[in-house]
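In this supplementary section we document a worked example of the pipeline. Step one takes a protein sequence of length 268 as its only input; no multiple sequence alignment statistics are reported here. Step two produces a three-dimensional model, which step three serialises into structure tokens for compact storage. The input and output of this example are shown verbatim.
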Amino acid sequence: MPDISQHGHSTNLIGLATACMASHIFNENPKPLHIAGTRESASGLFEQLALQPTRDDCGRIFQDYMCVVFGFETEQRLRNDHSGRRRYRNSYLRLIQDWGLDSNNAQGAVFKGWVESRFGLFPTYHKQHIAGFVSKDWVMYIEEKMNSRYHNNCIYMQLDLLYEYCQWIIERFQFPAATHKTLYRGVNSLDDWIILDEDKLHKIVRFNNIVSFTDRRSIASEFGAYILEVEVPMVKLVFFSELLQDHALHGEAEYLVIGGDYRVKVQR
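The serialised model returned by step three reads:
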């Protein structure tokens, strides 16, 4: 680990100390989180969203906005530039799709880098446990998160908007829950996880800075012998399968969650 006593940077874009936001105490008593300036910079989008009667209508407005502002539609029409080479514009939807395939690829490093930048949380795992700032593991993570192929087209800004849109939907429709959502994750061994404290019923587990869960226990059981049950505060949700109509994570009812220390119930 970079330093097990530290959660992350002393600065972030949420206006709350990283150690506080990452603690299990915050998770049990959450407060609203916002990425500074994001809603203000896209005020027209959120004004239009406020006029929509349903979540599906909001989803269409959001995806149309992202398509126009970040040029995804242009890429579809113009597959090649004047030199004949294929154009590549990174998008939040492509990042979500690639995360679902492999969270330890370069696209996964970009996602972890966004969490580090905005929420201040260090990643604890990328391909393998990160041993420290001078380790090869950390250098590999840095190289991949800064890869120009995946770190273009204002990808952090896209993820900022995705997070704020997710939180706006939760606030407006109280969906998928009001304050907390019970989620599950299947693991093969508890030895791979950093356990900070435990009693007969619960363990305090430090998760990676962004981590996948599902809201279906049956799906979690397919991924390991142990099932981790967690009460996740809604303010920690970046994405969930019903947020948008068109994306690649429908099949596993997946939730993308900001990590840190969580009180976990372990089941078999």
